[in-house]
Amino acid sequence: MDALVGLALDVARRTPPGDVPVGAVVLGPDGAVLGEGTNRREADGDPTAHAEVLALRAAARRAGSWRLAGCTLVVTLEPCAMCAGALLLARVERLVLGAWDPKAGATGSVLDVVRDRRLPHRVEVVGGVREEECGALLRTFFAAHRTG
């Protein structure tokens, strides 16, 4: 799992300046990278341009289907409610995340959208992988923005 989060960290480090450095990678059932994304809300002026959504869109294009059954999403920060909903709608099987988000996380911390038994699909969650490293990337970003 560490190597998978390493892929997402590499993507996060390519986030455009001004956007929160989050990286996401979608792996197919065979482990091949189907899509990746970084946060681009500021760069694109798009409130839905979260790393997870962009990675899911790229993976769906490459797979030729919106159904990403058997796929794994690896992300450096716990997904928000919008991204958790996108995971469910795409039928992603597994989520591997780095840092938990105690303010807006929706896959186990604040909310647990992806494992709600009332919904027809649930996502396996593996959290806290390389959590310190993922958190440090975010803390560095926010520290620079608070002083600048």
Can you give a write-up of this model?
There is one protein chain. This protein is an alpha/beta fold and 148 residues long. Helix content is 37%, strand content 18%. The chain has a five-stranded mixed β-sheet with strand order 2-1-3-4-5. β1 (23-27) and β2 (33-38) form a beta hairpin. The longest helix has 17 residues, at 131-147. The chain starts with a helix and ends with a helix.
Q: Keywords, please?
A:
148 residues; single chain; five-stranded mixed sheet; alpha/beta
Topology:
Elements: H1 2-12, E1 23-27, E2 33-38, H2 41-44, H3 51-63, E3 72-77, H4 81-90, E4 94-99, E5 124-126, H5 131-147
Short characterization:
With 148 residues, this protein is of the alpha/beta class. The chain is built from 5 helices and 5 strands, in the order αββααβαββα.
Structural class: alpha/beta
Helix and strand run: HEEHHEHEEH
**Gross morphology:** globular
Helix content: 25-40%
Largest sheet: 5 strands, mixed
| pLDDT averaged residue by residue | 97
Strand order of the largest sheet: 2-1-3-4-5
Per DSSP E runs of 2 or more residues, the count of β-strands stands at 5
Radius of gyration: 14 Å
Unreliable stretches (pLDDT < 50, length at least 5) are: none
- The fraction of residues in strands falls at 15-25%
Question: Cα distance, first to last residue?
Answer: 35 Å
Number of helices: 5
